[in-house]
Amino acid sequence: MERDQTEELRALQDTLYFIGGKWRIPVINSLCNGNRRFREIERSIPGITTRMLSKELKEMEMNKLVKRNVYPETPVLIEYEPTEYCRTFGNIIQEMIIWGREHRKVIVENKI
């Protein structure tokens, strides 16, 4: 079977665009680990600013990766949850974690 390199490149670019930036993957990981409220997500990601988390969650909602639920309580309760579509990325994140751990071992072993 012949591979369509143009299509593959487009798919890679789409993926890199999606995961590009410093915060998208940590936000997805936090949500998939059960953090639902804004402050829970924020506390689980060292270094992220309130403004950046807000921006990421809005973009992720626009891209059908996060569902925002508003509960009419006093004060208003807002929770975020990953969509099923977002969860399809979970295996990729897990593979990235595995690769990152192995890469760190290679780097550390070579420095000594």
TrEMBL record:
The keyword Transcription regulation applies. One of its GO terms (molecular function) is DNA binding. InterPro entries: HTH_HxlR, WH-like_DNA-bd_sf, WH_DNA-bd_sf. Keywords: DNA-binding, Transcription, Transcription regulation. It comes from Chryseobacterium arachidis. This is Transcriptional regulator, HxlR family. Residues 10-108 form the HTH hxlR-type domain. It comes from the Bacteria.
